[in-house]
Amino acid sequence: MNYSQSWLTRPFTERSTQIFLGVLFLAVMVVSVLHLVMPEGSALYVSSYTVTLLGKYLCYALLAVAVDLVWGYLGILSLGHGAFFALGGYAMGMYLMRQIGDRGVYGDPTLPDFMVFLNWDSLPWYWHGFDMAWFAFIMVLLAPGLLALVFGFLAFRSRVTGVYLSIITQALTFALMLAFFRNEMGFGGNNGLTDFKDILGFDLRTDAARLGLFIATGIALAVGYVICRAIVTSKLGRVSVACRDAEARTRFLGYRVERVQLFVFVVSAMLAGVAGALYVPQVGIINPSEFSPLFSIEIVVWVALGGRATLYGAVIGAIIVNYAKTVFTGILPDAWLFALGALFVLVTVFLPKGIAGLLPGLKKKTDDESEAPTSGKEATA
Amino acid sequence: MSIIRSLKQLLIVCLLSLPVLGHAQANDEQAQSLLTQLAESSYGQKGKIAGEIARSGDERARGWLEAFSAGKLARIEPSKGDAEGSGKFVIVLSNRGRNWKVQDALTGDDLGEISRRDLDSIRVNNSLRSEIDGILSVIDLTVNDADKRLAAARGLRGNVDEAMAKKLTELMASEEDADVKATLNEALAIYKVEEQGDLSAVKTLSGSLNSEARAALNSATYSDDPALKQAARDALASIETKLKWNRAAETLYFGLSLGSVLVLAAIGLAITFGVMGVINMAHGELIMLGAYTTWGMQQMLPGQPGLALILSIPAGFLVSALAGVAIERSVIQFLKGRPLETLLATFGISLVLQQLVRTVISPLNRTVVTPDWMSGSIMVNEALSLTLNRLYIIGFALVVFVGLMLIMRKTRLGLEVRAVTQNRAMARSMGIKATKVDIMTFALGSGVAGLAGVALSQITNVGPNLGQNYIIDSFMVVVFGGVGNLWGTLVAGLSLGTINQLLEPWAGAVLAKILVLVFIILFIQKRPRGLFPQKGRAAEG
Amino acid sequence: MSIMSELTHRDRVFDFLTPTASPVDVRHGPILYLEDVTVSFDGFKAINNLNLTIDDGELRCIIGPNGAGKTTMMDIITGKTRPDVGSVWFGSRHNLLTMNEPDIASLGIGRKFQKPTVFEALTVFENLELAMATDKRVLPTLTARLTGEARARIDEVLTTIGLTDLRHREAGILSHGQKQWLEIGMLLMQKPRLLLVDEPVAGMTEQEMERTAELLTSLAGKQSVVVVEHDMGFVRSIARTVTVLHQGSVLAEGSMDDVSNDPKVIEVYLGEGA
Amino acid sequence: MKIKKQITAGLSALALTLTVSVSAPVAAADEGPIKVGILHSLSGTMAISESTLKDTMLMLIKEQNENGGLLGRKLEPVVVDPASNWPLFAEKARELLAKDKVDVIFGNWTSVSRKSVLPVVEELNGLLFYPVQYEGEESSENVFYTGAAPNQQAIPAVNYLMNQVGVKRWVLAGTDYVYPRTTNKILEAYLKDHGVADEDIMVNYTPFGHSNWQSIVSDIKTFGSQGKKTAVVSTINGDANVPFYRELANQGIKAEDIPVVAFSVGEQELSGIDTGPLVGHLAAWNYFMSVDTDANYDFIDKWVAYTGKEDAVTNDPMEAHYIGFNMWKEAVKKAGTTDVDAVKDAIIGVSVPNLTGGYATMMPNHHITKPVLIGEIQDNGQFSVVWQTPSTVAGDAWSDYLPGSKDLISDWRKPLHCGNYNVVTKSCGGKSEVAAE
């Protein structure tokens, strides 16, 4: 690892990051090109259905990266990241709802349909501003960020860690799910937000928009990955690992563990929010079930499967599990839950390092690589 | 109305109703025509005809009315060419499936099974049912058994009509049992207040907690007679103050019963999670297994739900305990000291168990019958009655808790468990078989989950999702109470339950739950190790 | 061997051990003093009105049977445990009872745990890097870059603790003794005014012990060192003043010889069967 | 240079496929099986209700194939599992339409799943038959609602209680989601129109799977003891019902005192409850398994034979699929093709027999005519019909009792061809100031 480089450029000198970005770029390019150029019906054609599907996987991948950042490097097993994901999604959903304008079934220019037929006479205050894209996009980061800030501040200050933290994160997302189910909340209750028309002026139902969203997601994943990578390869990253492995020791070295945790936690929450925001327009609905604790646990399992504390492992895990889900729920639905359940067990018991653990060398090599100049010299010293 | 009750009354009738209706000779012609009228007339008419049947003096009448009000009186569709109203009337003995076991209503001989296609059941509805109840109660009032008479009299309150009123006044004169007399008096008073706006009757009702009485008084407050109005108002006011206290007591009871459910669900977890540090996400499914065991038992012992329930207490424990052992051996033993990993693995297991139940048994909920001695409620007074099943569950929860306490405190196992959890290596070196202890501990925790399942089968769905509804609450209770502390779990469960019930009236069910969750989150911030934390060096690091 | 020789060249050893200008005010008297400190867990008094003063630059050994409260005392000084009563002052300005671990650490109190705790997932080099006395707030840490002299200093400490060749191996693979040294090295990187060293030579070979003794004695004078140790031989080899703790309070204090002849002490130790 | 060549190649290829694709479907469509998509959750929380609907469809398709298929072609079911996950519903719907190219979809149970699928079906111009009673307030060109709209279930039920039973006080208890919310809004408006005072209406919402009913039931008890006949209108959903009814029984609320009329409790839900204590409580549906017609008995016999379970029950949504399937079949015959647009036009006005001895007709608003039956629970888990509407009722897409939608009608025939035509402003999609305020 190259310690004397600037934290922002450091990731790009890593082999693993280079490979990851390369693969991601290629994948997105190939899919886009095949989708545009190949004739429909040809074996190589990528239907817009597939494009959206892949887009969804990438959203999950970004979400998994966010979870891996806190779990893998900070040792905080958050069972509530679905909440941040969903909050980002709702922020985007509210924007999209406002974009419908008077094209709703009741033709009300401001009120979304569900408000009209539940006799809301005016827009609740927290819905204002979401007709402006920039505001909505800021909220995509702010809403989850603030929640993480407040929650994290309370939790880390009083040194709630390990199992306790996991369980109250679960309580957090569970409470939010119940809250969003309530129709008085003004988020559409169980039906959530749906029937979106267009985003930034593009009609969501066009293949172009879908491809655009897919590419945007790809970029978001790349950026998110690099940010996380930059953090974990920085000195702060090493301090995080220090907190994870020996919290007390880190304190005695003079680091404010709770602030380190808070910082990383908030960053992770924001990334999750972005993932959610990109997820909603692609799947076309956001509803409280995204808050369900089960979903949050599932995310953790993607990471575990891919391999903790590698980031790219999280991506691999997310994509594999969700691809499997798509396939199995199609061909043998009954067996699906068996497969998933068995997967959880086998991975945790026999594959503690996850899939990433199966492809060794990648990470090591990069280290030696960037070490070569310095370590050579010091070896002789 | 449950079959059991009908049969009971049928019995009484056979023995005792003869003096009332026995003076006439059976006459099948008349019976056939009466029943035919009953079958073909409109709901409005049916009541009157039922009355006629009762008065007809035919000793089979009671049976017909019983069957009729239970929807078990039917007529075999007259096949082509038969004369009108010639269809044979039958009493349905078993009405499940496509073919029903029936018995001739007139001759009483068994006609075997008849396809539903060929049967027209004589339609009955709620108002008819209560009318018939009225008629039958009047008959019951002449039974020698005072309790029966009391029950009958109670049933009469609120559905006395003019004809009945006369009969009641006669009966009251002859009645010697005080309670029955009082109740009859009340029933009459209700009738008088409602129908005649009788002022003196209001006095009788004041202070009565019976809902029908209250209803009567309420209606009286709408009357135009100011005196009556005022009297009714005063009577109601006095009742209200009484009610307040009853309501408070009731809420407390609700809180305790909800709390005891939480305790039951959580206490197994307090062992596996609290003592062993295993985050067992499959805990909910172990509860589910217990519930399904109850169902299985009841399937094996049809007709004896009570016995089945009692048997399924040990059975449920065993099943879940064995499942627990399987889980421990197959997965958890490989995850020593990796609590967060156990969370993931056991979550996988819970998915598998759910799907297993769906595919092997059914995705549909299963029916678990509540035995008679557990259904209904005991009446403290007319306004406050404690539902029996809840009462049993509170008791059960306490028993289980005490049992666990004894095991942990007094037995060798408990000692070894505590030894192993405090210092594994040391315990080992002292010749304790740590692995064995692990198995035992986990089996114990799982078994208790099974017990919880048996109890829950009496108040909620027995279905594949049963577990999921309780897993999060269970964790909350354990964490709130302080991990590794059974007392904590008990206190936490009961207090959370009570808080929830206190909040519910003004916050509503959803908000109450949310508030409780938020409360727990904030509480954990203040006291990261729960209500009863483990102090000292042991807890550090 | 080479390290031994280096240790003998004091000038080269000391240039990086010169204390940082920490705001500790030691003009009038001791650098650390505990007064009437008492702390109890579930009624058991781990510390029972303990009084202790450490002078600036002093090297003090603290001995005592198990459960005498040695580690708890360190917990109190470093802010991990709060006493029920009593006062703990660092110099004459800082009331340690009002501070948390990081503050106390950045004031210049370094601690080495009884059980060597290093960051096993990080390399030896990184362990030292994290320990280095720098701005430890979040954002500076995020953007921190390793400067030449910082690297040089790490190299020097690496040499001192003899782990240069293992610099890029993960600390997890180190032997027990090596971990002890690494932890001491981390203390050195912190440049503390006061070192609290809990059983530094546990699991060390004779040779390693000597080195440790050398190092600790060499530190004394510039920095104050408090050593908690069981190994009497080791204590004797470095001790100037020895404090004997028993049941959470000071039983005896003085030179090694005085203490070891003190009947109470003997009684305690024999009573302990040690 | 090279690139240009490639692009032109690509474009020409694209153009080629376009020309092909114009003629292709027709050619492709006429041979090979007709694909019927089945979009019901087979896992997750909704599997309880939806898996039987899947089996119903498979049974109907099997039967149809035994009778020689449709248009001389076999029917081929395409089953997918949206796993009770709403976004997955949309994804699977897209898969069915875009990947499997199904000719029609039968599916969905919950409102949210329908809302999630709706945009997809409209975008890809598919056909969806939705078999469950729902809150109304929707009319899509591509969706056919074979379940009950509020005016085909709730309103008649309330009428029955008001007129036949003489109920004066009302408890509207429901699970907190859109169907109960809307239904209760409509009922409140309706009751007030019929002179029920505010203090005689008690509305209560509970979360999904609510299991602790003690205090609510005791509130209902108190509310019911005020001297006026009281009834509970329950839109409580699925799992919450068992503990609700148990609590009713235990607190001694009998149907004779305070009847509960439920809109979401059918034979299947009852099969999971010990109905002994529930005898006399009511439900309003458009079909009961106990209905005394030969068509129904035949259907039950087929169902029992197909499932191989003597105790298999049938319920209202199954009948809805039965009707929907037959309507689609007739429409395809009428149109002579499975082409979506042709079928959409052909199906309006199609009448097929239902299982309750009458006929169901597809109305221009894509809802159907249904009889409304009120049944009382019996101790064998069946309902005995105590009342039914003299004639069938046509489903209303837009309720007359909601301010937002009382002026809206739906008619998918030419020339109107509009799902939400505002009769006041004479405009489709309600794009107007009037509707806006």
TrEMBL record, chain A:
A UniProt-annotated Pfam family: BPD_transp_2
The protein's name in its UniProt record: Urea ABC transporter permease subunit UrtC
UniProt membrane topology term: Multi-pass membrane protein
Localization in the cell: Cell inner membrane
Keyword Transmembrane helix set for record: yes
Taxonomic superkingdom: Bacteria
Keyword Transmembrane helix: yes
Main location: membrane
UniProt keywords, alphabetically: Cell membrane, Membrane, Transmembrane, Transmembrane helix
TM segment ranges: 20-38, 44-63, 70-92, 132-156, 163-181, 208-228, 260-279, 299-323, 335-355
Classification via InterPro entries: ABC_transp_permease, ABC_transptr_urea_perm_UrtC, LivM-like
From TrEMBL, chain B:
Keyword set, alphabetical order: Amino-acid transport, Cell membrane, Membrane, Signal, Transmembrane, Transmembrane helix, Transport
UniProt subcellular location: Cell inner membrane
Superkingdom: Bacteria
Listed transmembrane segments: 252-271, 307-327, 339-357, 391-408, 439-459, 471-494, 506-524
Membrane topology: Multi-pass membrane protein
Pfam families according to UniProt: BPD_transp_2
Family per record: Belongs to the binding-protein-dependent transport system permease family. LivHM subfamily.
Name listed for the protein in its UniProt record: Urea ABC transporter permease subunit UrtB
From TrEMBL, chain C:
PROSITE patterns (alphabetical): ABC_TRANSPORTER_2
GO molecular function, one term: ATP binding
Translocase among keywords: no
Keywords: ATP-binding, Nucleotide-binding, Transport
Domain ABC transporter: 32-272
InterPro entries noted in UniProt: ABC_AA/LPS_Transport (IPR051120), ABC_transporter-like_ATP-bd (IPR003439), ABC_transptr_urea_ATP-bd_UrtD (IPR017781), BCA_ABC_TP_C (IPR032823), P-loop_NTPase (IPR027417)
Signal sequence coordinates: none
Gene3D superfamilies, sorted: P-loop containing nucleotide triphosphate hydrolases
Protein name per Swiss-Prot or TrEMBL: Urea ABC transporter ATP-binding protein UrtD
Organism encoding this protein: Marinobacter halodurans
Gene: urtD
TrEMBL record, chain D:
Protein keywords: Signal
Signal sequence interval, chain numbering: 1-28
Pfam family, one: Peripla_BP_5
Protein name as it appears in the record: Urea ABC transporter substrate-binding protein
Lineage, top ranks: Bacteria, Pseudomonadati, Pseudomonadota, Gammaproteobacteria, Pseudomonadales
Gene name linked to the record: urtA
